[in-house]
Write a structure and sequence with these properties.
Chain lengths: 998, 194
């Protein structure tokens, strides 16, 4: 037997250890996965061995494989086994594996509760430390609840190493189990003034993390921190404290005022860049929080900006980066002081480091003004040409659009320039996402700035022509969508319109299956043709009208069988409409499609039908065309009618406008629309009545003419709904409904000459420069005067006003009476810190203390089945407590407990000592085997008693019970069983001294 | 808070990874891969901060890294950490490793990732900085290793001998013998004696 064991051990020596595994993987580079699969099998075999050393070796290998991306969650039980070993070596391996692979939702975590508690209370500080480190990586709600008290006890350990770790651990406990925060907070506060700097630092760290999310609850700690800040020399801690103050100052401006001086001193004195930087950051936070009017306020800003400039000019890229980062914070509150360093920021745009360039770009946002916008954008465009990485290019594009469009195009003076810039951006061919951004800008400028519409339409004509000439890139495809719309909607120039029609139709025919712009192109073409026709009719130029109709029809023909559904449908609609007009103008025209001819033999009747539906909407009556449309021109009013479809202007709609439409007072959505007729009517409206299973006679009896006006209205509404949802129905009513669909009509391709070397947008800049020079000369004296009058931000407003910025339509349409202001509250983020938003200054309530004490009992699923919370026991007592004595006792007990709880730290210390004593005892008794469970048991038995009253009797009873426990342990090896018993007793409400009963 | 600490070499092979927030293994590998791609294309003379990295964290998070010879040390931290402070921390970490391994190189991390984890555990706990004083860290580590040695004692001697033989970099023929077969041979050996 012994020999076999020795042999087994000897064999095991030749198992692969971690080094062998690593070496093996390196030697099998070609078939690594196969090799690892083989190793996994070996590991599985090893894990089945009884020898803990073998298991530990296997787990160590698993940990390595986990790093390589192999799932090892199947071994969780084995890992727990190794963790529970008595040897520190194996424990280390086990806890490492656990910290790498366990997580809060791991199964079987509850098995670890008692083992970890045992380790936490281990005599050796490193065992406890190991448990804390491991636990910090996988603590779950249950573990946090069950172990909170043990960890709290460790916070007052005699060993600084453990105190430090326990303090940090408490933060993780708070996150998982917020109820622990209030009971633990006094102790945490105490640790801020711990004699050991490490513990102090840890406590600062934890409070900082807590305060970052809920700063207002920690304002009361400000004096403590202030003292620490002025006395400590530990830079690491100082940084944390200063960061914390940065979070607190927005809530308490007085604090900020007090801080400025020591912080400025630190800025002047410190040699550590990290500290300097954090000081500047906090000063900035202070400056933001206190509105101006404080003496020395400007000086502080100046100091910060100066120091930052030094950082930015430093050769160390890290400092440069951080300097820019901090600058962007100042920018928000003191843009003027940052704008003074524009040169520096612009220079950083040329830096070789992308992070720095991106930071500098972020700063540009606040640096532009009406005067320098063109210049800056020009610079950025040059960068875009040169940039290699798409990321940076895209960022540039976003920034250009952002700085131009900010504040409703506040800084854009010349919109023709802006439209040109947008066109050029399109030509640079960025990604589709950014194409969409440009497209949105094109549409928006068109909608908001009436003055520039004509020009924008011309530019868009150019874009369309180019897209027609060569297959567009991803960005152009997106922009085409907007271009077609703007072109058709705003173009009034005959030549442009005339040239665009064929271009648009070509665009609709090419460009891949999923281009959303294609259908819009068809519609834009129709719109332009309609406008052109109206123009020709006004001139009475029949030939031109017929020519454009022919051209459009022939352009539409290939689209009639387009593979894109939407394009096909719109092409059919458009060609039918145009054929109608053409037939009126020249009935036997060759361009007329044959199908259309046979289908629409009598064009008038079709129009009548079309009108008919309109009429139906209004009157629910069928009076066909009455002489309303006075026939005029060569088409007899047909063209006029066609063009009317696209009349009217689209205005920008405010965000959320739809939501703000007030509900009509008389609208009752709950009410049945029509009690008896509705269902039968709708189901049988087409087709003859079925065999009347249900209620056919009713329908027959229905007198059609007897609808009340309400009913009529309902019917009409219902029909409109049906039509709106029916894809085969040509939407009719007003021209507006067409425009809502974003369907522009299009036209002429303008050949815009492409300049190779200079950007077209540059000419605006040049002309601006020239004119402004002249103006400046003229107006110097005047300006000086005005500057004196208004030294603040408006100094150049007058000049800017003179630049004649066109009116930009602001906001958007809203229903009457609705305001934009009411913001919806942001959705609650899923953040554990929300639960930690607790008032820490309130005195602890009794329940809270109790909960924290109960927590040391694992919940039913927490491994130890028994430890029903004490509250339930108490409840039972109260339930039973019909007798006055019982309730009196209880009251006494409660009050005792309260006093105990309030002295928590001391008691806890006592508790530790006691535990240690007990441990010693158990060791000396040589009952090592039962030690683990004993301790746990002890904890259970001891805890519920009011320990403050340490009477002799009490101790005795404990000892006795302990002895009994150990006996029981011998008798029944199964832990859970006897614990169940204990729990049972407790649940019965047998009070403390009666443990002897067992 | 530190969200993750990654160490990988110039080819993106992970040498040490520690996540203080749970990600499953696939996700971890993806993060390492993405981080490597972000970091590796940067010159050595650019700044050590990197925004972005879509997988881990959001805008509040930053990658702070240092490049030593063949290894990248990357810390993913949120805005509560001082950027320059973390750079110092990386330096402390590497210097401590250097003290522990005596002239640390990539091979040390490859074969002793567990020891590197032990160093890291003394430095950072649960994503929070525990100790930045190198002397203290080394002292803690030594004491723990002493405990381990005491436990090993005599009983581990043969195992140590074997592993020493194994790591002697045996000549090729020995490796060709296929170590897994050895136990079989030894098992057969006593039988033949009987």
């Amino acid at each position: 037997m012994a020999l076999k064991k020795v042999k087994g051990n000897f064999e095991r020596m030749f198992d692969k250890n971690l080094t062998d595994l690593v070496r093996g993987i390196r030697n099998n580079k070609d078939n690594e996965s196969k090799y690892i699969a083989q190793c996994m099998e070996e590991i599985k075999v090893e894990l089945r061995q009884d020898n803990i050393a073998v298991k530990a070796n296997a787990v160590a290998k698993l940990t390595y494989l986990q790093m390589l991306g192999y799932d090892i969650s199947w071994a969780i039980f084995n890992i727990i086994e190794v963790m529970s070993s008595n040897k520190f070596t194996y424990k280390r391996i086990g806890y490492l594996a656990a910290s790498q692979s366990f997580h809060a939702d791991s199964e079987l975590l509850m098995l670890t509760t008692n083992m970890i508690r045992k380790d936490l209370n281990a005599q050796n500080q490193y065992e406890a430390g190991l448990a804390l480190s491991g636990l910090s990586c996988f603590i779950s709600h249950d573990l946090a609840r069950d172990l909170a008290n043990d960890i709290m006890t460790l916070m007052s350990s005699t060993k600084p190493y453990l105190r430090m770790k326990a303090v940090l651990m408490m933060y993780k406990v708070f996150l998982r189990y917020p109820e622990a925060l209030r009971p633990a907070f006094p102790k945490l506060k105490e640790k801020l003034e711990d004699p050991d700097p490490g513990v102090q630092s840890a406590a600062v760290n934890v409070v900082c993390e807590l305060a970052r999310k809920n700063p207002k609850n920690y304002l009361s700690l400000a004096p403590v921190f202030f003292k620490l800040m002025t006395t400590s020399t530990n830079n690491w801690m100082l940084i944390k404290i200063i960061k914390l103050f940065g979070a607190l100052t927005p809530l308490e401006p007085r604090l900020g005022k007090k801080l400025i001086e020591p912080l400025t001193n630190l800025i002047h004195s410190t040699s550590a860049m990290s500290l300097l930087y954090e000081c500047i950051n906090t000063v900035i936070a202070v400056l933001i929080s206190i509105s101006s009017g404080m003496p020395g306020h400007a000086a502080s800003v100046q100091l910060c900006v100066q120091k930052l400039r030094i950082l930015i000019e430093d050769s160390d890229q890290n400092l440069k980066y951080l300097g820019l980062l901090a600058m962007s914070r100042i920018l928000k509150s003191h843009p003027k002081s940052v704008q003074a360093h524009k040169d520096l920021v612009l220079a950083c745009l040329d830096d070789k480091d992308e992070s720095i360039r991106l930071r500098a770009l972020g700063l540009l946002y606040g640096m532009v003004s009406k005067k320098n916008l063109m210049e800056i954008v020009k610079k950025l465009m040059v960068h875009m040409d040169r940039a290699e990485g798409t990321l940076y290019r895209d960022e540039l594009l976003t920034r250009i659009i952002e700085i131009c469009s900010q504040n409703n195009y506040q800084h854009v003076v010349d919109f023709e320039w802006y439209v040109t810039v947008l066109t050029e951006l399109t030509e640079m061919e960025t990604s589709a996402k950014h194409g969409r951004m440009v497209a949105a800008q094109v549409t928006e400028v068109g909608a908001r700035v009436a003055e520039v519409r004509e020009f924008a339409a011309r530019e868009c004509g150019g874009l369309v022509a180019r897209a027609a000439a060569a297959p567009p890139g991803p960005a152009s495809k997106e922009v085409l969508y907007a271009a077609a719309y703007v072109l058709a909607e705003y173009c009034r120039e005959e030549t442009v319109m005339r040239e665009s029609v064929s271009g648009l139709l070509i665009c609709a025919g090419t460009g891949g299956g999923h281009m959303r712009a294609r259908a819009v192109c068809v519609h834009a073409a129709l719109k332009i043709v309609a406008n052109l026709l109206r123009l020709y009719e006004g001139r009475n130029d029949m030939d031109a009208a017929i020519a454009i109709l022919r051209e459009a029809l022939s352009g539409l023909r290939p689209l009639l069988c387009s593979e894109d559904m939407e394009v096909q449908e719109r092409a059919h609609n458009a060609s039918a409409l145009l054929a109608l007009v053409l037939r009126r103008l020249s009935p036997a025209d060759a361009a007329l499609p044959n199908v259309a001819l046979s289908d629409t033999a009598r064009p008038d009747s079709i129009l009548v039908e079309h009108q008919h539906t309109d009429e139906l909407e209004k009157e629910d009556n069928l009076d066909p065309i009455n002489g309303e449309s006075t026939p005029s021109g060569f088409s007899g009013g047909l063209i006029e009618e066609l063009a009317d479809l696209f009349d009217g202007e689209l205005k920008p709609v405010a965000p959320k406008a739809q939501k703000k439409v007030p509900m009509p007072a008389d609208l009752n959505l709950e009410q049945w629309l029509s009690h008896d007729h509705w269902s039968s009517e709708s189901s049988s409206s087409e087709g003859e009545p079925e065999a009347a299973v249900f209620a056919a006679p009713q329908r027959d009896a229905r007198p059609t003419a007897q609808f009340t006006p309400e009913e009529l209205a309902m019917l009409r509404e219902a029909r409109r709904q049906e039509q709106a949802n029916n894809p085969h129905y040509l939407k009719d009513d007003s021209p507006r409904s067409y425009q809502q669909d974003d369907i522009p009509i299009a036209e002429i391709a303008l050949e815009v000459p492409l300049q190779v070397h200079t950007k077209r947008s540059d000419k605006y800049l040049l002309s601006r420069e020239n004119s402004s020079k002249k103006k400046k000369e003229k107006r110097t004296s005047k300006k000086r005067k005005s500057k004196k009058d208004k030294p603040s931000s408006d100094s150049d407003s007058e000049e800017e006003a003179s630049l004649g910025r066109p009116a930009v339509a602001e906001g958007g349409e809203l229903p009457e009476g609705a305001a934009l202001s009411d913001e919806e509250p942001p959705p609650p983020p899923d953040d554990p810190h929300r639960a930690l938003d607790l008032d820490l200054d309130q005195p602890l309530r009794e329940e809270e203390l109790l909960t924290s004490r109960i927590n040391q009992y694992p919940s039913p699923e927490g491994g130890l089945l028994t430890k029903k919370s004490k509250s339930s026991k108490k409840n039972k007592i109260t339930d039973k407590g019909s007798g006055d004595k019982v309730s009196k006792k209880k009251k006494e007990k409660k009050s005792k407990q309260k006093s105990v709880d309030l002295m928590l730290p001391e008691v806890a210390k006592l508790h530790v000592e006691e535990d240690l004593l007990i441990e010693d005892l158990s060791k000396t008794n040589g009952k090592k085997s039962a030690k683990g469970s004993d301790e746990v048991e002890e904890a259970i038995l001891v805890e519920p008693h009011p320990k403050g009253t340490k009477t002799e009797k009490h101790k005795k009873s404990k000892k006795e019970s302990k002895d009994k426990d150990s006996k029981r342990n011998k008798s029944s090896s199964k832990k859970g069983k006897h614990e169940k018993k204990t729990g049972y007793e407790e649940a019965l409400g047998i009070s403390t001294p009666s443990k002897e009963v067992i | 808070m530190i969200k993750a600490i990654l160490v990988f070499n110039n080819h993106g092979k992970p040498r040490l990874s520690k996540f203080y927030q749970y990600f499953n293994e696939d996700m971890q590998q993806q993060i390492i891969k993405e981080t490597f791609q972000l970091v590796s294309k940067r010159d050595d003379n650019v700044c050590n901060f990197l925004e972005g990295g879509s997988l881990i964290g959001g805008s509040d998070y930053k990658l702070i890294y240092r490049h030593y010879a063949t290894l990248y040390f990357v810390f993913c931290v949120d805005s509560s950490e001082s950027e320059l402070g973390i750079l110092d921390l990386i330096q402390v970490f590497v210097e401590t490793l250097d003290k522990c391994f005596e002239n640390v190189c990539e091979l040390d991390l490859i074969f002793h990732a567990d020891a590197a984890h032990q160093v890291l555990d003394e430095l950072v706990m649960g994503g929070m900085v525990l100790q930045t004083n190198m002397a203290d860290i080394l002292c803690r580590l030594q004491e723990q290793n002493k405990m381990q040695k005491a436990e090993a004692g005599i009983s581990a001697a043969p195992a140590r001998a074997v592993s020493a033989v194994k790591s002697m970099n045996l000549p090729q023929q020995l490796r060709d013998m296929k170590l897994p077969d050895l136990p079989q041979a030894i098992k057969d050996f006593p039988v033949s004696l009987h």
